[in-house]
Fold these 4 entries.
Entry 1:
Amino acid sequence: RRDLEESNREMEARVRERTRALEETNRALRESEEKYRLLVENQSDLVVKVDAENRFLFVSPSYCQVFGKTEAELLGETFMPLVHEEDRELTAKAMEDLFRPPYRDYHEQRALTQAGWRWFGWADKAVLDQDHNVIAIIGVGRDITAPKQAEEALRKNEERLTIALRAAQAGAWEWNAATNQATWSDDNFRVLGLTP
């Protein structure tokens, strides 16, 4: 009888200890999930997770907001219909590249948002199982429309400057005061009858 009571007390003590450990683990898990949720929900970058067939498994609130869609409308669907037709081939190739080392990719594409067509830069990484099979892809996207527009404006201005310099039969040069080096445009050499 005494051995049975002692065994029962030991078992109850072990159960209490395991219950405390489980409660502590659950508390730590809840805190971790809360930190993750706060991070994702307050992230301005777009965060997605897709399966190997490019169907959404997760979309961040910022993604839903930019595209004017609910999570329920997006989950299970593919993202390709949102991608500009001219950028689909490049996007498909980038996604295929994720199935080979280094299992990472960066690509730029236009996508139809609720504000119209916007440029996005996507950094993607494959999630692998223990056999190195791709089971999902995590993507983080950022709206790069403003820099893309600035690049295009600069390119157009450079074209205009080149046309104007040729029409005026003039060249351009630049002097770096720190290095005391001058750089001439090809037109400057041409106007002066020199070879670059």
Entry 2:
Amino acid sequence: IYTSHPFTGTFDGEGHTIANLKFKAYKGYGGFFGKIEENATIQNLNIENARGPIEKSDSEPRIGFIVGQCNGRIFNCHVTNSYLLETEANYSGGIAGSTNNKIINCSVRNSTLAPTANSSGTIAGYLYKGEITNCYSSNNTVSGKSTYKGGICGFAQNGTITNCYVYISNFYQDSFSLIYEKKIKYILVEELDITF
């Protein structure tokens, strides 16, 4: 969902599942929502068996299964059995490519992030002055040639990650960090396989 204007409202999926989603990157953003603004909320949404971006973008986009660029809030959204394709991206994440607001009570399971990106994380590729809380990553693979990779977030700058965990995840090539920077309040890591 992306027009010439980013989403500014509230989208409540009411616990429903969107299956077999295929999306393109448009004007630098890709996902179910390309970009949401500060007053927007996406909540109670499940995505299963998604694929994208299905065409090469003319720029290096911010891509995520739920939102490409999250300036708003994402609550209780879950992604399973999905695949971010081998493409060039700025930031790539299972929930959001990049966020500067809130991602709360979200998860990504049994999914793969394969873009060549500045940073990739199974919840968010890049966190700036926002928060990721009560989120988990389970049985995911981050395989693209990203500068930074993370089990929760690829690169975090002045953000807060609280009460999150990573379980049985695989990371290939380049550098790896569970998350980046500081303000980490609780993270549990189990059965992590890192291959360089």
Entry 3:
Amino acid sequence: PDVTNDPIINTASTTSLNVTIQNGGLLTNSSTGGITFTSFTIENGGKYIHNKVAALPGTTRSFSANSTVEFQKHTATTCPASASYGNLIINVSNFTQNNGCAGNLSSIAGNLEVKNTSGYQLRLVSTQNIAHTIGGNLTISGGTLVLSSDSGSPSVAVSGDVIVSSGTLDLSNKSSGAGSPTLNIGGNFSQTGGTF
């Protein structure tokens, strides 16, 4: 279906869908069943809220630069799936461990905001040396984002501002044998709270 209003998927049934969220559309996925998205498109101005204890749907995914994906729930022991995101919001309430992304979040055309990681760490890499790009701002308003948790030396290029108002932004949290992550900021750095 093409989504232009604000439906909520909340079913235990099993079905496969081709989904397009259009400009101004909002789709919340709270299903408990085996719903799968064969193709998943979010156009500019569309927003998808993932409130399902499962991975991001879509055999094929196409997210426009000004689209938004917000994770409110997820598979409890894995990082969100690899995709070219527009705007990405991490607001997950059900993580049960620190989760390594291994480069899954390396392509974000718009803003990345970390709001909640359930008291655990979201780690961009562990041992990988992967370039990450964030086309807008990086905002930490809760939760913990770690650039490297082991020997990895990722480069993270933020075209806009880095804003820390709460939570933690940690470049590296390995005490011995740590990598050397780099954070390149095109705009300004602002810290009004939290930890950096």
Entry 4:
Amino acid sequence: QSAAEALVHLSKESLQLFRELQISSEGRIALENKGLLMVANSAKGLQATHHELDIVGQWGIPGIKVNSSEACEREPLLKANNLGGVFFSNEAHAEPFQVVEELVRQSKVSGCEYFFNTEVVEFKKSSQKITEVVTTKGCFAAEKIIFATGSWSKSLGKSLGIRLPILGGKGYSFITRELQSIPRQPLMLLENKVAV
């Protein structure tokens, strides 16, 4: 339960920050609020979508249960043999590359520097404070250090004596030529672990 509460809070805060980033990007980011349709093909999967709806609903995430025909109404490309699922109306999406480009652009304007192909080796500390970051391209000192190391966070955190309960995940994405038919609705196909 506490993990779900933390994820819901993180999700709400992230959505607000994405909206602020879209406004400040002056049109360079297209953030679309079309919601998210989670669809199941098995009774167990359907139960899991309903369970998720119940959990996140406790913290104010709006959603509704949908049957198979309602799911197909929301997304005509779905096959009629789906069992339905849930629809979360407040979900939004953006093109990830646009978001990253804009974050880099805005951070550079604010004075950030980037060092690509530079691996963090260790941290030097004094009185419980990181004084330098040792990398494969030298040592860097800064007043503030942002610890955004993705799947490496757990091992790097351990080197600092910090326990970060993070589980690395893996996924694939691909870009295709323009398709004749594309989904009009962001989808999560539960059993296939596919997001569209």
